[in-house]
Amino acid sequence: MSKLLEIALGLVTGIGGFLEAGSLATSAQAGAAFGFQLIWAIVLGTICIAFLVEMAGRLAAVSKHTLPDAMRERFGVRFFTVPLVAVVLVSFLVLASEIGGVSLALQLATGIRFQWWAPVVAVAVWLLLWAHNFSLVEKGVSLLGLVTLVFIVGAFKLHTPLNEIGTHLLPSLPHQDGARYWFTAVSIIGASVSPYLFYFYSAGAIEDHWDESYLGVNRLTAGLGMGFGGSIAVAVLACAAMVFHSRGIQIDRYEQIPLLLAEPLGHWGFILFVASLGIACLGAALEIALQIAYLIAQGFGWKWGENLKPRDAARFSLIYTVMVFLAGLVIFTGIDPLKLTIFSMALTALSLPVTVVPLLILMNDPLYLGDNGNHWIANAAVLFISLLACIVAIVAIPLQLMGGS
Amino acid sequence: MRPVPLLASLVLLAACSGSPSEQARKLHQTRQSWEATARLTTELLRRGAVPAEYARQTLDAAGQELEKTRQKAEQLSQ
To answer: Less crowded by CB within 10 Å, the N or C end of chain A?
Structure first.
């Protein structure tokens, strides 16, 4: 019975926690600019993150190591600093984007500019973490995050043609705006395969004392949770395609995005959009701040844990405190949260090989996984998607920058 | 997708992006996009689907972006 509850909670977390600033913004931008054409990028990203989350959970359950812990032990401190720096840098930018997302939701609700909300949001995120009741908050936010299912309702209300979704499950070349097309594609993959998701998941598995009896729960949670989460991102893209693409509207600013639910669902659509944006980004901000602290503390062998009082894990608490307030400061400067979000996602895609290849090496090491090592299909799928996203990002990011977008 | 068409597409777009005609096309697209945003916002405000404050913010944003587009188009034509 407790395993069933674990699966149910895992699914709720997967569904409620999948959508955040990155996946919302990139899916909406993709649907507005290219209709249904970029659905394949969400599918690729979802497959990749499902594999990665499953691997991180399996590593924790079998080896009793978190991912940073195992990386430092297996590759040494010097090598470990490379993924450490890459993940911390990318995660910090994503954290700023999420704080920007909550601030924008508050701007939409109150009319007060988002940068004035940034310090308030940073303090709220920090207080929730400092009060060390994160477990409750995480489950609560994930449960509230189910409000993002409203995008599926919106897509149905708009009579989304399912054959269009089916047609674009496979990649196709763009008819125009090639730089923007590929840039958006890598941003979508980056948003789906954010390293914080699987690093955070491995830490959670250790905190919940997973062992090999949890491998089935892990597989179901990763596969179904990420699969359902990905379908919400597809629904966002479908709503944007139906509302924006058909009218020739591109998404250049966050202010435009609520229209995609207000059109099919009226006033409640607007309210539920604001709630979805605020809750999804708040949940992601909490997880990312904690994940950065986990990563650094686990990597350097410091005391860590969401259930420890701040004074019992002082360096761990100091890291998330500094990160949250610095990220709030970035948004307070008035930087465009949409541009920050999109570029953070593209940089995430660029950094994927650095974060993913060490995990794959660990997942094929019998010293850590015994007989539970990776199947070649999982290795091939994750390696192919990560390298493809990285190569396209290397070309698409400079082109997009040169284009002035 | 095979790697050859993908790379060919990337090389082609590297050659084309940033040309004056491409910039003019993008500016035209941006202008149309913001005009359509303003129309949709006004329509939804009339239906009571969005609050007046939100509509004001979005219409202000549309005004700012249209002005930026106009200035860029002027620079391009000089």
So the answer is: N
